Amino acid sequence: MTELKNDTFLRALLREPVDYTPVWMMRQAGRYLPEYRATRARAGSFMQLCMAPELACEVTLQPLERFPLDAAILFSDILTIPDAMGLGLYFAEGEGPHFERPVRSAADIERLGIPDPEQELRYVVDAVALIRRELGGRVPLIGFSGSPWTLATYMVEGGGAKNFSRIKAMMYDRPDLLHALLEKVTDAVIVYLNAQIARGAQAAMVFDTWGGALAPACYQEFSLRYMERIVAGLTREAEGRRVPAILFTKNGGQWLDRMAATGCDALGVDWTTDLADARRRIQDRVALQGNLDPCVLYASPEQIRAEVARVLESYGRGHGHVFNLGHGITPDVDPEHAAAMVAAVHELSPAYHA
Ligand code: CP3
Q1: How far apart are the CA of 73 and the centre of ligand 1, in A?
Q2: Which residue in 28, 121, 161, 196 has the fewest CB atoms around it within 10 Å?
Q3: Residues identified as active-site
Q4: Which residue positions does UniProt flag as site: Transition state stabilizer (predicted)?
């Protein structure tokens, strides 16, 4: 394997000394980039883009050609696992994801198999290997998956949900059924992430986009518990280096201390939590990744710089911070504004590591 030229991101995740705060953006390859829209048009659809390793590789690298980012993230989606389980994923134009065959009954759950990452999800791990080769050691590659709870919400609701009526009815009426589903999805996530790591992913991130919709006791029982099982099941060393595990629960700021106790290396933090407060609560047990409000990128480059300064100041001096947005970049952001954010992080952060 080619030597890694910039390992600042991996070192920050392990709270090792770095010269500046590394930065990447959730959804950094996406619709706000005209070159992404062009490749997606060539692919035909979003899923065809995900399923063609050469095209997935191409869009993964696009943001790195524009901005001096410190990490690449595999271009794919969290819904590849339920799709490979046979649920029939499709994206209706402008409507987000849907499943043709949602999971509603014990028989539906019984029928689900654990997808083989080298068969049904071969296109994902092939993309990982190709991206690693094309990166040539420029920056590390992040692999990812959805959390079992978040994947289950899409699987049971049949798509995006406003108030989680179906999955929460199942959770309160038939917790045994939901646990059976979460067990299977957890097994699928572990083999999927380990296959990404085996093919070259150098860090693994779990997106728990909907964990924050749960009451605290339910969060513990239906989301965190399964993420803890994932952390315990992950390959943590590859190519002679630790493979850091990052957990991100959107709207999960109040549970950061519990998340830090799972054995993960780092926590993603959204913009509703102050990083100084988060850091105090986790007592530097793990690194923190975040947390600029993505809407700051609608403001002028001067204001973006000021808000970057505020986030750096809230984390404060010392290591263990990876700069990111608090959630994915939105499709109507001006790429020049993303450039302003990345530049501000690189210019302003060395003072915090001196
Ligand atoms: O961060 C990256 O650049 C890597 C790529 C990535 C995508 N989806 C590409 C994508 C990642 C990490 C995801 C994760 C994902 N997908 C999550 C968890 C993260 C989060 O945002 O909370 C969720 C909930 C999904 C499910 C999903 N996929 C939704 C709700 C949508 C529709 C969004 C929309 O705005 O229409 C997608 C599609 C999707 N995934 C797009 C991209 C770039 C847009 C597809 C397109 O129209 O080109």
Answers
A1: 12
A2: 161
A3: 27, 31, 40, 77, 154
A4: 77
* Protein residues with CB under 6 Å of any ligand 1 atom: 26-31, 40, 46, 73, 75, 77-79, 96-97, 144, 160, 207, 209, 250, 328
Look at residue 74 in the predicted model and tell me its pLDDT: 98
**Which pLDDT value is given to residue 93?**
80
351 closest CA partner among 19, 23, 15, 22 = 19
* pTM of the shown model: 0.97
7-287 adopts what CATH topology? TIM Barrel (3.20.20)
What distance in angstroms lies between residue 283's CA and the mean position of ligand 1's atoms? 32
The ipTM of this complex is 0.91
How much is the pLDDT for 1? 65
CA of 346 to the centre of ligand 1 (A): 26
By most ligand atoms within 8 Å of CB, the mutation choice from 26, 27, 69 for ligand 1 is 27
pLDDT of residue 92: 85
Backbone angles phi, psi at 68, to 5 degrees: -80, 65
The confidence score (pLDDT) of residue 137 equals 98
For residue 290, the model assigns a pLDDT of 98
Residues of the chain with pLDDT under 70: 1
Q: What percent of the chain has pLDDT over 70?
A: 100
pLDDT at 326: 98
**pLDDT attached to residue 80:** 98
